[in-house]
Amino acid sequence: MTPRCRELLKRCSAYLEGDLEKACCAEMEQHLKECARCRAMLVEVKWTIEACRHAAPSEVPPEVSAAMRTRLREEREAIKATQPG
Ligand SMILES: [Zn+2]
Predict the structure, then answer these.
(1) What does the alpha-carbon distance between residue 15 and residue 11 come to, in Å, rounded to a whole number?
(2) If you compute the radius of gyration of the chain from its CA atoms, what whole number of angstroms results?
(3) Is the four-CA dihedral 57, 60, 61, 66 of positive or negative sign?
(4) pTM of the model
């Protein structure tokens, strides 16, 4: 995992919610083109968020939202483990 990957993972949630500056998105998308690991991770998270968005709240299986939260938490823990502080 490169520093670029860690930076991307940190911004993953905001990126998927469309909260980032356009320049940041372009930068991230460029990295995604070059990095299969981040691409695979983002696709998985994005798919889950999209599924939650388009389904009525009652239609989202609890295990799906739980799996998404677990996934994001694991990624955050992985980032923390590689960075002091
Ligand atoms: Zn990467």
Answers:
(1) 6
(2) 14
(3) negative
(4) 0.48
Angle (nearest 5°) at CA 83 between 15 and 68: 40
How many Å apart are CA 75 and CA 41, to the nearest integer?
A: 9
Name the residues around ion ligand 1, CB cutoff 5 A.
Answer: 5, 35, 38
- pLDDT tens for 13-31 read 666 666 666 656 787 788 8
Instruction: Report how far ligand 1's centroid is from the alpha carbon of 66 (Å).
Output: 24
Output DSSP code: residue 20. Answer: S
Distance 26 CA to ligand 1 centre (A): 14
